[in-house]
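Shift notes (night). Ran rRNA-processing protein FYV7 while the centrifuge was going.
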Amino acid sequence: MKVLKILIAKYQEDREVFDALPSKKPKLSKLKKAQLEYKNKISEKERLKKEREERRKEIEMKKKFSKERRFKRQIHFTQKTKKGQPLMKSRMKILLEDVEKLVSKD
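Came back to this:
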């Protein structure tokens, strides 16, 4: 009975080692390898193209946002009173917003 248990234990150990070994994959023909390589290249190109497009859109949005911000700022700074003096109310409002942004960052 002990011998049988020892043999079963030995068989299970060998089986675990065998299962842990990587199984052999069937070799691919040159045609299949070339097809896989081609698909990988195409998918990589598409991925890079999407990344470039996303980056371009992001940059475009940042430019648009900053252009709008500069335009609004320019409008406020060019306002004048009836006598031609600069309108300080809008200038002070913009300066206050700038100071609040600096304070909120800290």
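The radius of gyration is 35 Å. Helices lie at 2-20, 30-78, 88-105.
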